[in-house]
């Protein structure tokens, strides 16, 4: 059985870290929110594709 803690480790390049730090300050949001949105944007298209392909298609009904 997999023990899921709901946490994810992310490694950022020094350039990306610096850019995100500046953006977080400019937007006045925690930097982890920007990182989380990048991770979500990476997985979201796959999730949407899986949901769409699980729905029955009118042509097949």
Radius of gyration: 17 Å
Total strand segments: 0
Taking pLDDT < 50 over at least 5 consecutive residues as the criterion, the unreliable ranges are none
Order of helices and strands: HH
Task: From the structure above, extract its key features.
single chain; 61 residues; mainly alpha; 62% helix; 0% strand
Topology:
Layout: H1 14-27, H2 31-54
Overall description:
The protein has two helices and no strands. Helix 1 (14-27) crosses helix 2 (31-54). The chain is globular, with a radius of gyration of 17 Å. The chain has a domain at 14-54. The model has no long low-confidence stretch (mean pLDDT 77). The chain has 61 residues and is mainly α.
Kindly summarize this structure in a few lines:
This protein has 61 residues and is an all-alpha fold. Helix content is 62%, strand content 0%.
